[in-house]
Amino acid sequence: MGAPGLLAQVLIGKYVDHLPLYRQEAIFARSGVELSRTTLAEWIGACGVALAPLVAALRAELLMQAIVHADETPVAQLDPGAGKTKRAYLFAYRTGSGPPIVVFDYCDSRSGKHASQFLGRWRGALMVDDYGGYKHLLAQGVTELACWAHARRKFVEQYKASGSAIAHEAIGKIAALYRIEAQASDMDAPARHAHRQQHAAPLLGELKAWLETTRPSVAGHSGTANAIDYTLRRWPALVRYLDDGRYPIDNNPIENAIRPIALGRKNWLFAGSHTAGQRAAAIMSLLATAKANGRDPHAWLRDVLTRLPTTKDRDLRTLLPQCWNPAG
C-alpha cells in the first residue's frame, strides 16, 4: 500500500519529471526499497481511477468559460495484436479567460468527432490552428479565433530557409502587433479592446493591404507565397481578436501546456492501452492545471490524495488546483 506522499512522488516522477517506471524502480532500488514497476503501474492506475471525479469537475469548469484554446498532439499506444505501437492523440484544451484550466482528452485518432464529443453543447470562442477537424464545430455556432503565432511561424521558417526579404518584413509587421499586446497586458478587457481598436486595427488594415499587393509578385508555389496565402485565408479569424478584449492573440498557452507532453513521450515510450492512456490524460490534466495556477504539484497531489477519500461530492471543487487551499 502506498501512502499519499509516495503515490504523489511516483505520479509526479512520471508525468512531471518524465521518469518512466523502470527508471523509478531503479532509483528506489538504489535506496534499498524494492518496488517493482508492476506495483508502480498498479498504483498509477488506481490513482487515475480515484482522481477521475476531479477531472470530470475540471472539465465542467472549463466548459463554463467563454473562451477555450484547443490543440492536439500524437502519442504512441501499444497494439498487441500487431506487435508494435499505433498512433493515438491527446486533444488538449485550456481556458482563455478566468483561472487557467488544462484538460487532456485521450483519443484513438485525430478525427474531429473527438473535439465535438468533448465540447458537446459548448458554444464559445475557440482558438485553434487550421486543422479541418474543428470545422464542424464552427458550422454549429462556435466562434473561430486564429493564431498569429502560427501565421508568424510560417514566415519565420521561410526566412530561415531562404532569407526572403518579404518574409522578414512580414515578421516585423507581426512583431508590431505583439508590441501593442504587450502594452495592454495589464489592462482589463474593455480597456484592452479599446487599445486594440486604436492601435492594432490600423496596423492590421495596412498589413492586409500589403499582403494583397505583394502576393502577385511572389512565385506561386514558394514558401513565401504559402505563408502569405495562409495568412490571407485565415484573415477573418486572425483579426477576430479585435472584437473582444478577452480574446487572445494566439494559441501559445495551449502549446505551452502540450510542450511537456512532447518531451515526456520520448521517455514513456507508449501507453499500454486505451484505458491507460485515458488515465494518464486525467492525471496530466490535473498536474498541468496545478502548474498553470502556480501550485507545487507534489504538495497539491499529496494533499488531495489524502483528503479525497473523505471529501463529499459537493465539495470536490475545493480540491481542484485553481480552487485548492492546503489542509490545516
**Topology pattern, helix = H, strand = E:** HHHEEEHEHEHHHHHHHH
Rounded to the nearest angstrom, the radius of gyration is 22 Å
Order of strands in the sheet with the most strands?
3-2-1-4-5
Please give the largest β-sheet: 5 strands, mixed
Structural class: alpha/beta
| Integer average pLDDT | 92
Which band does the percent of strand residues land in?
A: 5-15%
Question: What's the tally of helices?
Answer: 13
Low-confidence stretches: none
Count the beta strands. Answer: 5
Helix content: 55-70%
Between the first and last Cα atoms, what is the distance in angstroms? 25 Å
- Which shape, going by the Cα principal axes? globular
SSE arrangement:
Elements lengths: L3 H12 L5 H10 L6 H26 L4 E13 L4 E12 L6 E6 L4 H8 L5 E4 L6 H5 L3 E4 L1 H15 L2 H19 L5 H26 L8 H11 L1 H4 L13 H17 L5 H19 L4 H11 L21
Parallel strand pairs: 1-4, 4-5
Antiparallel strand pairs: 1-2, 2-3
Structural features, described:
- The protein is globular and about 70 Å long.
- It has a five-stranded mixed β-sheet, with helices on both faces.
- It is of the alpha/beta class and 328 residues long.
- Helices cover 56% and strands 12% of the residues.
- Helix 5 links the parallel strand 4 and strand 5.
- Helix 3 crosses helix 12.
- The chain has a domain of 103 residues.
Give the key terms.
328 residues, alpha/beta, five-stranded mixed β-sheet, 56% helix, 12% strand
Short synopsis of the structure:
The chain has helices spanning 4-15, 21-30, 37-62, 112-119, 135-139, 148-162, 165-183, 189-214, 223-233, 235-238, 252-268, 274-292, 297-307; strands at residues 67-79, 84-95, 102-107, 125-128, 143-146. The chain is α/β, with parallel strands linked by helices and 328 residues long. Strands 3-2-1-4-5 form a five-stranded mixed β-sheet, with helices on both faces.
